[in-house]
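FORM 12-B: Structure-to-Sequence Request
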């Protein structure tokens, strides 16, 4: 009778061990057919003989620590807008035999809107009426006066170069005499302003 009881107990134990096997999902723990980890009366998880610390992946078992969610990365700063080359020419015109600057506001506004100024080149010119020497000096005064007006308006003088060509770079095609000729030659009485930089 004792032998029969032992045999029956052994068969039951074998059946239980077959039903309660380690499942790949909960590797290292004894589970039932629904993959639920067996627990002792004290709530401790049952290990298989192959359990190791690396198997502590079941919540509530063996010091399992829930992985903290990775912090949301801060958004990357917006890239700085790329600056493009922005070269432009202006002309400041003068009355006959005058070096008085009327206005440079359009040039100043353009310069203030630039992201970077590389250079501002001023080239004075004169019409061909009068002697070459006089016109050369007049074109120089015109360029210097435009430079002074720009500096007074806040434009960086270190970016400026001042040059003059006298009457040697005409653009007007004129004929005639007197007031009509003077009026026609207005395009030659100028300071060319060449600005290079980036916007």
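FORM 12-B RESPONSE
SEQUENCE OUT:
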């Amino acid at each position: 009778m004792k032998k029969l009881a032992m045999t029956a107990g052994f068969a039951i134990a074998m059946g239980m061990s077959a039903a309660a096997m380690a499942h790949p999902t909960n590797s290292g723990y004894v589970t039932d057919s629904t993959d639920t980890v067996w627990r002792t009366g004290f709530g401790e998880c049952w290990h298989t003989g192959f359990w190791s610390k690396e198997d502590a992946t079941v919540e509530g078992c063996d010091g399992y620590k829930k992985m903290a969610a990775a912090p949301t990365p801060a958004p990357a700063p917006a890239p700085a807008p790329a600056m493009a080359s922005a070269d432009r020419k202006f002309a400041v015109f003068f009355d006959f035999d005058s070096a008085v600057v009327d206005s440079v506001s359009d040039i100043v506004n353009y310069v203030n809107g630039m992201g970077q100024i590389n250079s501002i080149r001023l080239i004075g010119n004169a019409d061909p009426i009068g002697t070459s020497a006089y016109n050369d000096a007049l074109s120089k005064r015109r360029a210097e006066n435009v430079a002074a007006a720009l500096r007074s308006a806040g434009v960086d003088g270190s970016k400026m170069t001042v040059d003059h060509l006298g009457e040697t770079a005409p653009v007007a095609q004129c004929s005639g005499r007197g007031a009509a000729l003077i009026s026609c030659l207005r395009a030659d009485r100028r300071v060319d302003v060449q600005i290079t930089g980036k916007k």
